[in-house]
Amino acid sequence: MNDFERQIGGIDEDGLRSLKIETIQVNLGLRCNQQCLHCHLEASAHRTEMMEWPTMQFVLQAARSGGCQLVDLTGGAPELNLHFRKFVTALREEGHRVQVRTNLTVLLEPGLEGLAEFLREHQVQLVASLPCYMEENVQAQRGIGVYEKSIAAIKRLNALGYGSISALALNLIYNPGGPFLPPPQKVLEEDYRRELGARFGISFTRLLTITNMPLGRFRAELSRQNQVQDYLQLLRKSFNPQTVGGLMCRQQISVGWDGTLYDCDFNLALGLPVNHGAPDHIQSFSPADLRMRRIVTGEHCFACTAGSGSSCRGALV
After folding, report:
1. pTM exceeds 0.85 for this model
2. Which of 1, 19, 228, 292 lies in the 20 to 30 Å Cα band around 285?
């Protein structure tokens, strides 16, 4: 039993369990046109792991049988998967709401011309990473030139109606630039609106704050600075029991690029598939067996319960 399990045991002796499968999150591959310092999956242009079309067909079957409300596409940069448009089209034709987690700059990549228009045509919701409204902070996390490209991509999306039309949600994501918790989401959203609006005339739907996971490149950076234990201790002491009811693992399931099932994308990064007797591959997807499954946990789970909480939907409380 790990420390997080012991913490949860004080709330529910039966452990952490899922409540429903509202969302199927699908990792389409680890290839990315960026190489961010906070990436828990260590995605980059050199990664070759990509989901194939037969696996996507199993996801379509799962979405159909599970009655989920949302199919959430992530990566890497999910748009770089060769079957991306075909998959999105198939999901929308079956009536599923589709959300894509984009790094924004991929929309400007050669060979992906017309991608923004494709997303609009299919009314795909977007969750876009913009870890700060200040150029220097984005540059430190994501590289030189990324900020300017991100702003250009948002302007293109705004011109298509994203961020102003209700069916075209454009949510931005903030994550801290170091080993500390995000500030209050509502306050930071006001800062983003003021700064981006005044400087670029940019609009967006919501801001979501996400705590950095002590995994992947971010953990490697913590290790280089000898801050791993300090950060883990910060997460532990910031545990907020009010966040437990809304943890994303309790409302969704994550599908890895090879079809393996995980409780969340962070467990995917650690290679910790669904366990405790539940089916662990998309080919054996069973809503009845997965809906109330016991969640696989670890020390990293404290990041989701620290402070105001953290999830793919932002703060929890």
Report:
1. yes
2. 1
Distance CA 83, CA 55 (A): 11
Q: Could you tell me the residue ranges of all domains in the chain? A: 3-305
The residue whose two tokens read 């902070």 is 137
Residue 37 neighbours by CB distance under 10 Å: 17
Pairing of strands 170-174, 261-262: unpaired
Distance CA 100, CA 88 (A): 9
**Where does residue 150 rank: exposed (0-12), middle (13-18), buried (19+ CB within 10 A)?**
buried
- Structure confidence at residue 270 (pLDDT): 97
Q: Rounded CA gap, 300 and 267, in Å? A: 9
Name the token pair of 92: 């929308």
Q: Which CATH architecture has domain 3-305?
A: Alpha-Beta Barrel (3.20)
Listed in sequence order, the DSSP H helices in the chain are: 3-9, 53-66, 84-93, 115-121, 135-142, 146-159, 185-200, 216-224, 228-237, 265-270, 287-290, 302-305
Residues 152-175 have pLDDT tens digits of 999 999 999 999 999 999 999 999
